[in-house]
Amino acid sequence: MSVFDKKHEYPGKLFIVEGVDGSGKSTQIDLLKKWLESEGYSVFFTEWNSSELVKETTREAKKKNLLTPTTFSLLHATDFADRLYYQIIPPLKAGMVVLADRYAYTAFARDVVRGVSPRWVRNLYGFALKPDISFYFDVPIQMACDRILSNRAEIKFHEAGMDLGLSTDTRESFRIFQGRIMDEYKKMIDEFDLTLVDATMEIHDQQNVVREKVKEAMKGYSKKRTIHARRAKVFWRKFSIS
To answer: How many domains does the chain have?
Structure first.
């Protein structure tokens, strides 16, 4: 079931982070972005489920609880495809460093937990590029849940996996749901050669690990962007949802 296992041929670099909610991945990619920019690199950042193309449709469907596991998966794949072709590939062509907070692996974990076939969802994302490094932040499920639940007054319905009927208690459902997602991530470490980061370490220690891996991947990379980078509008496309 191996997908997008061929290295992309663009002059830029693609680094992504994955992990369950509360793993600290977003903090780490933000620190990486600031460090790379301070080193003089041109950086473009993108995150999961952020395409304007389907954001409103997804939001409304969630409110009305209209999403089956398959439609959920298809909407997120549409979101990903739009971001890939209009937010990720153009800056890679321009020789920039692209950082993505969550990638296709998020779908491989969440969609499978919701009941979608692992083979089907992997084939669905067969068009994706292979990242230069895919970081997976590994943390005990209880620690991850404690981090989220201690800082959040409310957990959203789908975020907690309440649509799966795991528990009538939102917090318990969240814990079970995240635990199952973590189990799927564990299966992907070898399958996709994910770079494991111990997310129980201090924040600066994790960042040091990340930077060392990125430095290795950046050997021979030029900070100079290609001519495509001069056309800033190439990175953006706006949509109106009727």
So the answer is: 1
